[in-house]
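Dig into this one:

. . .
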Amino acid sequence: MFKRARNTATSAGWRSTFARRVLTALLTAGLLATVAASVEAGDPLLAYGARIVGDDARTRIVIDFDREPHFSVHYIANPERIVIDLPATAFGFPAKDLAARGLFKDIRYGKMDEESARIVLTTAGPVKLALAKVQADEAGKGHRLVLDAEMIDKQAFAELVKTQSWSDRTEAAQTTSAIPAPEKAAPGDFVIAVDAGHGGIDTGAIGVDTKTEEKQVTLAFAKALTDRLNKEPGIKAFLTREDDEFLSLSQRVLIARQNHAGLFISLHADTLKQKDIRGATVYTISDKASDKLAADLAERENLSDQIAGKETVAEPPEVADILLDLTRRETQAFSISLAESVLNSFKDQVGTINNPHRHAGFRVLQAPDVPSILLELGFLSNAEDEKLLLDETWRGKTVGLLTDAVKRYRAAVMANGG
């Protein structure tokens, strides 16, 4: 239909207003047919347009969808956020069209899992949605979600949080659904959890030149490392996430523990304000950071749940202390051994920063019984590192060196009766 209409219009030389109207009608019909087919096929919603206007008293957000979206709204405190949950949605508009302004100091949106997506509006203070509705587009092209936010006082916001009924469906789904597992791990196999940092609504860092998202870099590397490890006899590796979905930090730890992992390797590629700093870094857990760079990085990485609109559930201080104590006593030495093995592999082969083994309180490394490291492969804020992180040859080389490090670590553990 598209091709026929285009050829007809061309042959008329675009001279007739009538011909242009016919072409528009045909294209519209084709678009609607495509949308209808998408609905039948169960494709995600398409959010194809967005705009935001307003000031620090009232702010309006409008998002255009190809068809009617069903949504729910929830409020989270500490810090104040508004969460909009949606069915599976593809966000196809430029990020600048929904850049934070007015009442909102940060706006994130993206996939949570195969069936859901989320918009997280971090506010500059207590805010409520005075209006949240879906209405048909006047031109009949789809539907739009309209959100009108206005400032309120702290007591009113606290009441909104208190009186709402909400359990995070994505969190519940993860704990009740099948957990990723290595294929046919035999008795005695050395099981390794490979964790691709970030994912879904949490994009992570953004490349300085290519604007590549960290979540894409880490997943590509994690898949390559898992494939390589699984070629080694007696080793079974698996991914904590296999596609672009969000996992909370606690979910990542739980997945490793429930699969009886003997190692947990979390992969990242962060950004720094100092764009001249480059190279890999290996982090292990500690209740006190080794330096300011490590402390700042841990603070940013620990915000992953907040970015995705997760409620902050504070553990009792005695529980947190017990977890850290168990980690220190039972697994920290093994984690440090693995870190040293990785850095020995990288020596003269992969560039590292100064003092490449650092430590801080990373929540993703808190499994009390699984030796864990967080590996910063490089920095997407550095143009040279960014080139390497996207280079398949460099990735393959680094994956091989990491595999060698794991094999040496495993051999040492086995030799000591582990």
